[in-house]
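User: Good morning. I'm curious how zinc ion would be positioned relative to this chain. Could you predict the structure with it bound?
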Amino acid sequence: MRRRQFSRTMLGALSAVAIPAMGSSTEAVSNARGRRRAAPTSESDDALRVDGARINAQLAQLAAFGKNPEGGVSRTAYSDADLAGRTWLQGVFRDAGLTPRIDAAGNIIARVEGSEASLKPILIGSHIDSVPGGGNFDGDVGTLAAIEVARTLLAAKRALRHPLEVVCWQNEEGGLVGSRIMSGEFAASELESRANSGKTLREGITFIGGDVALLAEVKREAGSLAAYVELHIEQGGTLDAKKLDIGVVEGIVGHYEWAAEVKGMQNHAGTTAMNSRHDALLAASKFVQMVNRVALGLPGRQVATVGRIQAFPGAANVIPGRVTMSIDIRDLSAAVVRTIIERIEKEAKVIGDASGTTFTITPVNHHLPSMADPRIREIVRRSAQSLGLSTLTLPSGAGHDAQSASMLGPMGMIFIPSVGGISHAPQEFSKPADITNGGNVLLRTVLALDDWGAAGR
Ligand SMILES: [Zn+2]
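Assistant: Good morning! Here's the predicted structure, ligand included:
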């Protein structure tokens, strides 16, 4: 509940600002004061709040499933802990007045019908599976808050025009499996790949109550969602360092991986003079430095990493003749990534020429950036501000199910601070007040999106 200094009058003025209609620009919106619509600016909607204490209590309960000695959880997809946590979660859905079902992909999903049958659903949710040795907030916050938002609306008998669907995606950490089955990006061949729990995806989906024979039924069409919104912990340290309440996610950065190979001349470490070597590892070390320098040399938030390196033959008394490395580059702009890799290729040639080695760089994996819908970003920002919360627009460096959902309709994400920017570790922590704030921003965002439909979609 930090920085809530807005007076009641100011709050009213903020919430009276109209929400962008389809096709209207952000600038147009800021000039649209006075075009007040019904929900979510009505007095009763202004008073609606999630029960933050309940979300925080549920987070503590969920932490018991897969609890590890370090204070975090190892609740990897398809493990016994995952299954037990999912069973508990379905109880939370039911307590909220929702009727959860497990779709063929293994996602847990519930739907509340809206008052206008012709409208597409608004989908909210996240995941509860974790990485091995993970924390208690990644995914859990967004899942429990989404259920709480539905519960708050049901308890207040606040019917939406759109159907509202609440989802807990399965196996987010293992590659957005449940959400990619829904978006149609999942290949059947992936069923044989093995998850961290040791089960294949085929075995895992069956284990959690899905049906691999019916995966096609889960797939939805592009344009089938009115909107998808996911609340998540930032997993980086920007909001915490700047002491800001809410992150308005600009998009999820593209993730590009290349494999680099350096070829030199394998030779005797004792008999080969220093000036007649073609040391592939020495050239590779210059390459690692250069990748860092290239990424730092451009304005912006792009990141580039060499995270894996192997020298061959890998013996203490042999000059390495060959080295393999990974290159990982991420940014919201595919053009920036292209610029970086082109510079890396050019400079690798220079290093190679000077050291008598050759560099080969080949693409491995390319995941394009997913941009959040600018209108939803604006709605999230205004929702936060109407609650007296400070905001920052920022990219997500981590991948999320929202990427898959963005294939089906306009997508938005809400971040809350991660203390110290720590995530995927037992020390992962978000403050109870920030979790409550996130739940309330999600609630207001859903109400505003429901109204947005009224603007003539
Ligand atoms: Zn997550």
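Residues 252 and 396 are 5 Å apart (CA to CA). The mean pLDDT is 91.
Let me know if you'd like a different ligand tried.
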